[in-house]
Amino acid sequence: MTDFEGRVAIVTGAASGIGAAVARDLAARGAKLVIADFDAAHAGTIAKDIGDAARPFQLDVADPAAVEAMVAFAVSEFGGLHLAVNNAGIGGAPAPVADIRLEDWRRVIDVDLNSVFFCMKYQIPAMLKSGGGSIVNMASILGAVGWGGSAAYVTSKHALLGLTKTAAIDYAAQGIRVNAVGPGFISTPALQENMTDAAIAGLAEKHLLNRLGTPEEVAALTSFLLSDRASFMTGTYYPVDGGYLAR
Asked: Of 34, 44, 64, 185, whose CB has the highest number of CB atoms within 10 Å?
């Protein structure tokens, strides 16, 4: 597959899980890319595994200056920017609304919502200079429904859909498409490490397909939305959720 031959991509949160799967898929389809993550060691490992087409970049996506530097790095290394997957995110400590610590609320909103604004603020001008592009913002099924004890995360993902739609409206005429993907519960290292087998089985049962998704299944949809095969698709939210939202 050569969908992305000659194109440059940034993937945030690319050191593991969904982000790593997306990065590998884009590289396999011909893209050159920046593997951006807070975890420098694992970002370096993914970039090394991919080879010459990938470069690691360490940052905190909640820092706008670091995000600006990330975009400049991609342009400097590869000569432009055409694709972006704004995937980095955190869950936050579970708590009812009135019990959420202010610092926890701010951190989740900064990482899961504000960072996507920062990313698009600097990615879009670079894409315009490259002749256009495509962006996928990683939302969640919790951008469409609620989840007890996760107000900050749910709020950020709902708001992310509005941000995605507005960016799509603002830049459609200039050749930039912006969409959001909404994964269900996905079998990632973070989930496996932080939940018991019984809890994971309970999550699986909430999906019509009675299992968790895989990072590769999310990557397949993401790559499609970035590609020219999705040239008439922008400003929309696409769940990949095993039927979770059908109930």
From this structure: 34
User: What CATH number corresponds to the domain at position 44?
Assistant: 3.40.50.720
Compute the radius of gyration of the chain from its Cα atoms. Answer: 17
Rounded Cα gap, residues 186 and 123, in angstroms: 27
Over the stretch 109-154, which tens digit does the pLDDT of each residue have? 999 999 999 999 999 999 999 999 999 999 999 999 999 999 999 9
CB atoms within 10 A of CB 56: 22
* Number of domains, the chain: 1
pLDDT of residue 150: 97
Distance CA 222, CA 208 (A): 21
b/e code 79-104 from CB counts within 10 Å (16+ = b): ebbbbbbbbbbbbbeebeeeebeeeb
- Residue of 124, 137, 186 whose CA lies nearest to 11: 137
- Choose the catalytic residue: 153, 171, 237, 238: 153
Whether 153 is a known active-site residue: answer: yes
Q: What CA–CA distance (Å, rounded) separates 163 from 61? A: 17
Q: What is the pLDDT of residues 185-209, one digit of tens each?
A: 999 988 888 889 999 999 999 999 9
Enter the tokens of residue 21. Answer: 């799967």
